[in-house]
Amino acid sequence: EVPCFPFGAGEKGRSADDKWLLGGKGANLAEMSSIGLSVPPGFTLTTECCREYCSNWNGELPPSIWSEVTAQLKVVESKMGCEFGSDTNPLLLSVRSGAAISMPGMMDTVLNLGMNDVVVEALSAKTGNARFAWDSYRRFLEMFGNVVLEIPRSEFEEELDNIKFERGYFEDNELQVDDLKTVVSAFKEVYVKNKLAFPDDVNEQLRLAIGAVFGGWNGDRAIKYREVENIRNLLGTAVNVQSMVFGNMGLTSGTGVCFTRDPNNGKNELFGEFLIDAQGEDVVAGIRTPQSISELETAMPEVYQEFKKNTEILEQHYGDMQDIEFTIQEGKLFMLQTRNGKRGGEAAVKMAVDFVEEGLIDKKEAVNKVLPEHLDQLLHPSFSDTESDTYKNAVVASGLPASPGAAVGEICFTNEDVVQKSEKGIPCVLVRDETSPDDVAGMYASEGILTARGGMTSHAAVVARGWGRPCICGCSDIKIDEAAGTLTITKEDGSTVVMKSGDFISLNGNTGEIMAEKIGVSPPAMKGDLEQFMTWVDEIKEIDVLANADTPDDAAEARKNGAVGIGLVRTEHMFFEPERIGQVRQLILSKTEAQTKEALDNLLPYQRSDFEGIFKAMDGYPVTIRLLDPPLHEFLPGVEDEEVLQKLSSQMSMTVPELVEEIKSAAEVNPMLGLRGCRLGITRPEIIEMQVRGIIEAALNAIDDGVDAIPDIMIPLVGKVQEFKDQAKLVRATADRVFEERGKTCKYRVGTMIEIPRAALTAHEIAEEADFFSFGSNDLTQMTFGYSRDDVGTFIPEYKRKGILLDDPFVTVDVEGVGQLIKSTVKNGREVKPELKIGVCGEHGGDPRSVEFFANDAGLSYVSCSPFRVPIARLAAAQSAT
Ligand code: ADP
Ligand code: MG
Ligand code: MG
């Protein structure tokens, strides 16, 4: 039995929940028709058909699917009262792709299918509108040729442009019947030139078009898009075969696209465009300049009222902002598509808050409507002072503010250029006449996008918004000469600025302003809707979010972002500052006790004041401080670094060659597995004593100042419980000594990192001794996989391409392997100590999918991540709350 479902003409039954089977478009067409909106009738061939086609049929449509198609077609014919391929009363079809996850512009659609020399005459006679009939024919020839037979679209466009030029027309809808007939002949010639036959048989057209849509699933563009968007485990695309309605029948017809709210700022007003006497993707493709949706109210008041009503019905029904495609045929409105609309970060938060206030959804649903990427955008910098003269004077042109945010980067005119440069870490802005699906890789890698053509719903705008890339579209003041590598900007006063590939440009996606130079940006703030939204996030989430912070400034930033403590202070990060590093080097290389002591005495005040600052910033929240961890050679200068060597050798009363010898002898073959973590502490206890003294003295000082300091001291890289015992004993003895000196005490805890598989496997022993565990998930991943995390770049991309790895395990925690170690550690640890505090402080703490695992499957008490990821981790924690 072939899975295939009808929709339209009041058809009920299937719903949006079926989107895995029907694809998003098909499921929503079915849903719209079942709630009574007017949807042209048709049917959906499911994603299962696509899988069948792709895996077993090699470009051939299986007979079982075809016989179902003909059966369903009969039903559509009777609903429409006309007949596919008829020479008197013909039915035309659209063949539309649609996967479960919307992939804008990635898959192809064929309109006006069922046309040939006979049908065009029949359609013309039946409607009395020859211009419309021939216009539909030329559109079909182009789409079918391009999508199904893969003739480059430009070959058709060239013919069309020539004919328009000869006749002195600017716009497609100026073409008259005779012109259109000429276009049709010219298009048929294009087929001949390509040695391809245009099938006159309408059934053959349908068979080939369905096959092409299914086949498009495995096209390069679709594959690239899925890769970039991390879309997997989909069966394929569905195909929707639908009776055509015509927006190109004259002045009472048209087509448009519309968001039910403004996808940039979330305002509750329709945001869209339409074109009179046009069809299909004319609006999106920027063929003519569309009119704003608000103008529909005056152009066709009744249609507008019905449309407005529909948008309300749909928002109520889906509880979300909708992105709608519609067509008007001779004054009658048809709904052709709806889906939850893509939106920018600011809009996502505002709409989530508004929907709750309007009673459409509850808080938990609202929390689920904002994606981590949305918050990420809001947490990105914006131009510091757009009111300043410096800013205002820098503006050279402006275009449509298609996607918000600040983008600063080097001008690149090609996709490849962006990809190459961004791999080297150079920020790029992609500048193009217009973007096409072939540009997705470059758009993704860019900081922002600028186009000369296209409107607010153009390809560039939609894709950029989805990815949070700032984008300015339709800037007619710019002229791009790709060959010469120049961008010429005509300013308001008529003067021109010529910029070259590689020059810096800045885009303000909120206003559409373009600056021909590098403009300063400033960090974001939490206020208004965002602040409101984040209070709901905190109400709902079930685990704590802490931050990794090494300095008082980072700690303050973390607090601002809502961290309730510090999960990791990397004490060694404080060592790199210029005035400290010399002392650290002396400490490492010293041959005498006196030199060691001198270095430690000099370092102590630095550590103490840093810790004090952090305790103050974190008043009342725990501060987890990791004792020295990295291999010591990381602090040593290069043996070629003359100037540093000179200075250090005189500081330590050595000769330069002696010093070089010392440096060389400190080198290890495999430093990541060498003398680091507690191994260092065990062999050089005096360093640990200094650090612990710094921590405890700082805590006592802070407490003296009225601060609630909560130090948690963490011992790194433990593999055996004996290591932990050794270090914990040293920590406690040192703390006792300070308490005695100061005549007062404070509370502190001693815990350990779990980052070596052996520690995970012996968690029950370590839990007997330790006050808390913190998973160092970076090292745990490194050591569990045996992948050097500094060298994975050489093979991970290939592993992902081949499907050996689905994710980079250093980005998203490996649930099956590393995750299993984490789960068993938690279980064994808590068996010994039920109240054991357990968290994670690796990079994974800020990765939404990992956070879900830590919260729900592993049962951790907290995650800790870098300060700017804290809001994202809070959101992820709330979204995974059950
Ligand atoms: P995409 O996924 O690229 O948006 P669609 O399948 O939605 O592709 O088709 C693109 C456009 O083609 C639609 O927005 C609509 O304007 C037009 N279209 C599709 N089906 C029909 C139809 N049955 N009648 C009229 N126009 C249609
Ligand atoms: Mg499209
Ligand atoms: Mg569409």
Automatic annotation (TrEMBL):
Its EC number is 2.7.9.1. It catalyses: pyruvate + phosphate + ATP = phosphoenolpyruvate + AMP + diphosphate + H(+). PROSITE patterns: PEP_ENZYMES_2, PEP_ENZYMES_PHOS_SITE. InterPro entries: ATP_grasp_subdomain_1, PEP-util_enz_mobile_dom, PEP_util_AS, PEP_util_C, PEP_util_CS, Phosphohistidine_dom_sf, PPDK_AMP/ATP-bd, Pyruvate_phosphate_dikinase. GO terms for molecular function: ATP binding; kinase activity; metal ion binding; pyruvate, phosphate dikinase activity. Keywords: ATP-binding, Kinase, Magnesium, Metal-binding, Nucleotide-binding, Signal, Transferase. Residues 527-880 form the PEP-utilising enzyme C-terminal domain. PANTHER family: PHOSPHOENOLPYRUVATE DIKINASE-RELATED, PYRUVATE, PHOSPHATE DIKINASE 1, CHLOROPLASTIC. It comes from Triparma verrucosa. Residues 428-512 form the PEP-utilising enzyme mobile domain. Its cofactor is Mg(2+). It comes from the Eukaryota. Mg(2+) binds at E755, D779. Residues 21-55, 67-293, 305-353 form the Pyruvate phosphate dikinase AMP/ATP-binding domain. The keyword Signal applies. It is an enzyme of class 2 (transferase). The lineage of its organism: Eukaryota, Sar, Stramenopiles, Ochrophyta, Bolidophyceae. Belongs to the PEP-utilizing enzyme family. The active site is at H459, C841. This is Pyruvate, phosphate dikinase.
